[in-house]
Design a protein that fits this description.
The protein is α+β, with helices and mostly antiparallel strands. The chain has a single domain, classed as Alpha-Beta Plaits, CATH 3.30.70.100. Helices cover about 45% and strands about 25% of the residues. The N terminus is likely disordered.
């Protein structure tokens, strides 16, 4: 009986671990734009970034929004983007190296003051 309980515990533990590994990868990118960048320039950057979802097939979904926190901890970061990938390989070997992503970086650079990126495996 003790061996059976240990086996069930190990099976349940390994199932829980594999579940967390199988979640989607979220790639969160938050920009602080230069004060010298016009609204039209920032809008152009946003449109260029959002177009990556159509140009790079491994992007499962993409959304964005403006900071709306009343806490005033944003430190000037205004635009938040969340991209979803099936796994790390899609992010690292396809998205990061894709010509459209490289082209977007060139569009962004003249307007970016700072960027903050956090990636995580989605947990349910």
């Amino acid at each position: 009986m003790k061996k059976l309980l240990i086996a069930l515990f190990l099976l349940a533990s390994s199932f829980g671990f594999s579940q967390s590994k199988s979640g989607d990868l979220r790639h969160v990118v938050i920009f602080k734009f230069k004060e010298t960048s016009s609204k039209a320039s920032v809008d152009s950057v946003v449109n260029a970034f959002m177009s990556l979802a159509k140009k790079i097939p491994v992007v499962k979904s993409m959304e964005w929004g403006l900071n709306d926190s009343p806490e005033n901890f944003h430190q000037g970061f205004t635009h938040c983007f969340v991209l979803t990938f099936a796994n790390k390989k899609d992010r690292d070997e396809v998205y990061q190296k894709h010509p459209a992503h490289m082209e977007f970086q060139q569009i962004l650079r003249p307007h970016m003051e700072k960027v903050f990126v956090v990636d995580y495996m989605a947990q349910k």
